[in-house]
């Protein structure tokens, strides 16, 4: 049995060795397959990364252009708003100047009318005062004449009576 055991051992050893070589071959094939698949996956991942970077750069460029356009639009809108506001203020100022001018003209006309009325009133008052002065002077003259006559009439008898009655 020893030779048969040895043969059996050798056979078993050969079978294990063959199994080991077979497993090692399969593991090597599996490693090679995985290595090939990983290389393919790595290449695809690199391609995907490049495409993503390219797309990302494209997006950055587009966003930058859009921001530039938006900034330009905002500047234009601000400028247009300022110009519109300036036009509105100018229009309002013109309307205000026109209104003040109208009011000034109206006041000038009213002042001229008032001045004319005051001049007419003043002239009329002056004429009435002259007329009243003349009338008063005439009446005063008449009164003076009347009073002088009356005084003469009263003083003549008084002179006569005075001479008759001496004073003490």
Could you explain the architecture of this structure?
By secondary structure, the chain is mainly alpha-helical. It has 1 helix and no strands. It has one helix spanning 2-164. The radius of gyration is 69 Å and the shape is rod-shaped.
Q: What separation lies between the terminal Cα atoms? A: 215 Å
What is the CA-based Rg, rounded?
69 Å
Average pLDDT metric: 88
Total count of strands: 0
Count of DSSP H/I helices: 1
* SS-based class: mainly alpha
Low-confidence stretches: none
The largest sheet, given as strand count, sense and whether it forms a barrel, is: none
The proportion of strand residues reads under 5%
Overall 3D form: rod-shaped
How would you spell out the order of helices and strands? H
Helix content: over 70%
In terms of topology, how is this protein built?
Blueprint: H1 2-164
In short:
By secondary structure, the protein is mostly helical. It has one helix at residues 2-164. It is rod-shaped and about 215 Å long.
Main attributes of the structure:
mainly alpha; 0% strand; single chain; rod-shaped; 1 helix; 168 residues
């Amino acid at each position: 049995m020893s030779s048969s055991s040895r043969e059996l051992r050798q056979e078993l050893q050969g079978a294990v060795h063959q199994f080991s070589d077979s497993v090692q071959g399969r593991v090597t094939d599996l490693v090679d397959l995985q290595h090939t698949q990983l290389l393919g996956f790595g290449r695809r991942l690199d391609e995907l990364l490049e495409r993503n970077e390219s797309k990302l750069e494209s997006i950055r460029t587009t966003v930058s252009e859009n921001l530039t356009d938006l900034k330009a639009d905002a500047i234009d809108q601000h400028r247009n708003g300022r110009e519109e506001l300036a036009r509105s203020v100018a229009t309002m100022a013109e309307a205000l100047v026109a209104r003040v001018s109208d009011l000034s003209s109206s006041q000038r006309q009213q002042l001229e009318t008032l001045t004319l009325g005051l001049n007419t009133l003043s002239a009329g008052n002056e004429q009435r005062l002259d007329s009243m002065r003349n009338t008063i002077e005439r009446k005063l003259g008449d009164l003076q004449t009347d009073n002088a006559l009356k005084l003469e009439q009263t003083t003549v008898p008084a002179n006569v009576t005075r001479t008759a009655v001496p004073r003490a």
